[in-house]
Write a structure and sequence with these properties.
A three-stranded antiparallel beta sheet has the order 5-7-6. Strands 1-2 form a two-stranded antiparallel ribbon. The longest helix has about 40 residues. The chain has two domains: about 60 residues; about 110 residues, Orthogonal Bundle (Arc Repressor Mutant, subunit A), CATH 1.10.10.10. By secondary structure, it is an alpha+beta fold. It contains five helices and seven strands.
């Protein structure tokens, strides 16, 4: 029969073993988080990735910059869909919904048209450090329902108004 001292010693031994196991598990989970961070960093090249293990929830989280996430997704998403960030959340937008376009490629409302075109330029500009390449902007605008000619005319009007400028040939920025 166990005496009280032997029982206490047995409990202490088991607690120590459990503590050792938990430390090993914690170390393995940290290694796993580091491995995931390394894989993501290699895949996304210049991305800054931060991983952590939350012992409370049992989750490994990888935090990536929004611009990295959206640019990678946009490489794979077909127009007229576009991935952007609103209120620190990644959202998928249908660009064609921004334009009330008639069947012949004309946009109905002047202010709404201007806002929508500038928004497209801003979204493309967010993905490109040097500004929004004109070809990409035109591609998005035609996917949204404007004809290429109409899109070029509208961009030219915005340039004349000073709402859009060309810091380099074939590259746009909004003011």
């Amino acid at each position: 029969m166990n005496t009280r001292g032997e029982a206490t010693e047995g409990i202490a031994e088991k607690l120590e073993m459990a503590h050792d196991h938990l430390e090993r598990v914690d170390g393995l989970l940290d290694e796993l988080a580091d491995d995931i961070e390394e894989i993501i960093t290699e895949e996304l090249e210049d991305a800054t990735v931060e991983t952590s293990y939350d012992i409370e929830t049992g989750r490994i989280e990888a935090k990536l910059p929004y611009d990295t996430i959206t640019s990678r997704i946009n490489e794979r998403v077909e127009l007229p869909y576009f991935v952007g960030v609103e209120d620190e959340r990644v959202v998928i937008k249908n660009i064609s919904e921004q334009f009330p376009v008639t069947e012949d490629g004309e946009v109905k409302s002047g202010r709404q048209k201007t806002r929508a075109i500038k928004q497209v330029i801003d979204e493309v500009e967010e993905r490109n450090d040097d500004g929004a390449p004109l070809g990409e902007v035109l591609g998005m605008l035609t996917a949204a329902g404007l004809t290429k000619e109409r899109a070029e005319i509208e961009i030219e009007k915005l340039k004349q108004k000073g709402e859009v400028y060309e810091p380099k040939h074939q590259v746009l920025r909004t003011t």
